[in-house]
Specification:
By secondary structure, this protein is α+β, with helices and mostly antiparallel strands. It contains five helices and three strands; from the N terminus they run αββαααβα. Keywords: Signal.
């Protein structure tokens, strides 16, 4: 009986601790405005991007190498470099025309790539017990290494603010689109 009471108290304390950590985690949010990111497209043309990334440290996953409380400036530099690297790696999947015509698809792909780099490939704590389940293809926690856990950061929001396409390329795209539109209409 005494063991059951102790376990009940431990469960209550764990619930309170988890609630507090969730609240604390939601309080700290960083915003990075990354400008003039030079990327190459699928068709080997260079464009520049301005993006905004809102993120927060994952307090459930701590790593002294990426700890915002120990060194906030280094943490932000690591997160910014990780964001830029994810964007540059993903940019090659799209043509200049895609940036022009399918901005929302490009933005979603960048967001997914950054989220993967931030959170890593490990399944979340107790994700099997939640209604939404685990991320598809995530790696079991008992086999995860530190490298699999990303940079211990949660992506809250990503915005593709501006796409700077060189004027010559933009004019050529508009000409092609105008020809396509006029030939498509009877």
């Amino acid at each position: 009986m005494a063991v059951a009471v102790i376990l009940s108290h431990i469960n209550t304390l764990l619930y309170i601790l988890a609630s507090w950590m969730t609240t604390a985690q939601n309080m700290v949010q960083y915003t990075s405005n990354l400008t003039d990111i030079s990327v190459f497209t699928q068709d080997r043309l260079q464009v520049r991007l301005d993006v905004q990334v809102k993120y927060r440290p994952n307090l459930f996953e701590r790593n002294t190498m990426v700890d915002p409380q120990l060194d906030p400036d280094s943490y932000q530099m690591i997160v910014n470099a990780t964001s830029i690297d994810a964007i540059k790696g993903t940019s090659l999947n799209f043509s200049v025309l895609d940036y022009f015509q399918q901005r929302d698809v490009v933005e979603a792909a960048f967001k997914d790539a950054i989220d993967l780099r931030f959170a890593g490939v490990c399944c979340g704590f107790g994700c099997n017990n939640r209604n939404r389940g685990c991320k598809e293809g995530c790696k079991s926690r008992d086999t995860c290494t530190t490298n699999d856990k990303g940079v211990f950061t949660l992506l809250d929001e990503f915005k593709l603010v501006e796409i700077h396409i060189p004027d010559v390329v933009r004019e050529r795209i508009l000409q092609v689109l105008a020809k396509t539109t006029t030939t498509a209409t009877p």
